[in-house]
Amino acid sequence: MSETTFDYIIIGAGTAGSLLANRLSADKSKRVLLLEAGAKDDYHWIHVPVGYLYCIGNARTDWLYQTEADAGLNGRALRYPRGRVLGGCSSINGMIYMRGQARDYAHWAEVTGDDAWSWDNVLQAFRRHEDHWRLDQPGAASEAFKRLHGSKSTGGGGEWRVERQRLRWDILDAFSQAAQQAGIPATEDFNGGDNEGVGYFEVNQKAGWRWNTAKAFLRPTCYGRPNFELWTHAQATRLLLQRGADGAPRCAGVQVWTGSEMVMAHASQEVILCAGAVNSPQLLQLSGIGPGALLRQHGIEVVHELPGVGANLQDHLQIRAVYKVQGVPTLNQLAGSLLGKARIGLEYALRRTGPMSMAPSQLGAFTRSSPDRPHANLQFHVQPLSLDAFGEPLHTFPAFTASVCNLNPTSRGSVQIKSPRFEDAPAIAPHYLSTPEDRQVAADSLRVVRRIASQPALARYAPEEYKPGPQYQSDEELARLAGDIATTIFHPVGTTRMGRADDPMAVLDSHLRVRGVSGLRVVDAGAMPTITSGNTNSPTLMMAEMAAQWIRRSQPAAAAA
User: The domain that contains 471 carries what CATH number?
Assistant: First the structure.
């Protein structure tokens, strides 16, 4: 056993952990340790945008989790990617920059009783690290845009780069026009608080390369700070919990497996758990914090019973509708030959454009599953390609995919340990489509796809529904077919949710501190009480920005040496 002491220990060098390491180590009087179970982000496919295809399902960058067999998916189990590398999920995700809707944060403020989570307040945290392409050129941004994205007309000043995509597709432009003909307005900005509309996604890239949180927050600054340490291949196995004079537990550090020895790292001020919505509840449960019956079942001493640890799992389930088309190029043809692949590679090598610069989804749309919905509750990810399942070959016929997800699912799942061994993956049970409302939205969302596909703008390409198939029409048929073809869009949240003191299932208070355990916070997507209306990576960064402020205020800096 080796031992060492720091002021702050951050577990997980992913989206939230990287930002927190940057902010906390800026105080030279504080020693900061950042732990990452995976490797450095030096695998070349991390940085090429299309490289997510080689990172998901790769033990070098992914935890390789699988869900339990899910009744809502007609007994199927799904691959459940989670980043195991510097940058975490920001190194393997779809790179889409999305804040969510203002109403998401109004709800957070309501359920936590803390107005700090209201839209106007979180907007400041988003702005603090944003570096937006629209602010590069003086006068390029309108006054309205500046109010939403910051007042500087040059640069933006933050670390988190947001850019336009470096490609266009005729089939996607036609889908956008068809969506407008179906009543969905065009938009150039999904991040103003109401994201209803259709347009191309903005992405976290820089000059055609993926921009992950390791590049943004660690490499430029942290690596040169003498008060900062980064341990890779260092998996947290158990939190070190002590009881004070009052009998209440305090987190004093973490036990870490380095691959060759077990190290006891101590924190004089705080341990900050940023391991994600799967690994954070797992580590809490392994440490004796969680549902008492579950812990006792696996022979773990109950140090502090919190029944909400691992509960409240929410995710966006995408239903992949595929349409064959005619007379228009799609990636199915372009990447279907060695010559086509060579051309794609050459274009990227010379200009950093083309299909290799693609995010997994290029065109987005937000709309309502039915007219009686008060706000946009569906998100489309539209792609100029099709395949049977992620990781399988592209179809040989030209086609596009319109994946649609329910932004605000009412189904709730769980993450629970299967054993007391840290090496064993937990049981991930999303319980997709387990409520009548979610099944109805699934059926209605497929009808929205059909309505868009029937518009004049797409007629010239003769779209033919390939999946799920036009023979399926009833609510029951469409919901069952959704279970057959739907898959996760990789947005698990909620498993360590924050809430009011009188909420028995709230794991955290509104400042992300673990209830009943001092010296311990959870800062990752698991803290979200409800899922945001869109991609979850940038909201997680925002939460880390909020937490950094609270942590620094609660621990005054020592006098400078």
Answer: 3.30.410.40
Q: What is the DSSP letter of 237?
A: E
- Provide the 3-class DSSP secondary structure of residue 511: coil
Statement: the pTM of the whole predicted model exceeds 0.85: yes
- 156 lies in a domain? no
Query: Which structural domain range is residue 297 located in?
Result: 2-45+228-310+493-554
- Within a domain: residue 85? no
Residues 459 and 402 in one domain: yes
Going by C-beta distance under 8 Å and a sequence separation of 6 or more, which residues neighbour residue 379?
A: 316, 364, 365, 366, 404, 405, 407, 533, 534
CA 52-58-61 angle, 5° bins: 75
Average pLDDT over residues 374-394: 91
Task: Mark which of 455, 471, 491 sits at the end of a domain.
Answer: 491
Report, as an integer, the average pLDDT of 421-443: 97
DSSP single-letter state for residue 406: E
Within-domain flag for 291? yes
Residue 140 has pLDDT above 90, yes or no: no
Q: How far is Cα 55 from Cα 34, in angstroms, rounded to an integer?
A: 22
**Residue 190 region by backbone torsions, left for phi larger than 0, else alpha for psi between -120 and 50, else beta:** alpha
CA nearest neighbour of 398 among 120, 104, 171, 124:
171
Report how far apart, in Å, the C-alpha atoms of 393 and of each of 331, 408, 542 are.
11, 31, 36
Query: Is residue 482 a part of any domain in this protein?
Result: yes
Number of domains in the chain: 2
Residues 6+ apart with CB under 8 A from 265: 3, 4, 5, 6, 9, 33, 35, 253, 254, 255, 256
478, 559, 553, 481: which is closest to 511 by C-alpha? 553
Give yes or no: residues 304 and 326 share one domain: no
Residues 466 and 322 in one domain: yes
How high is the mean pLDDT of the chain?
93
The gap between the terminal CA atoms of the chain, to the nearest Å, is 31
Dihedrals phi, psi of 472, to nearest 5 degrees: -95, 120
Q: Is 493 annotated as a binding residue?
A: no
Catalytic site positions: 491
| 335, two tokens | 């990447």
- Strand partners for 160: 130
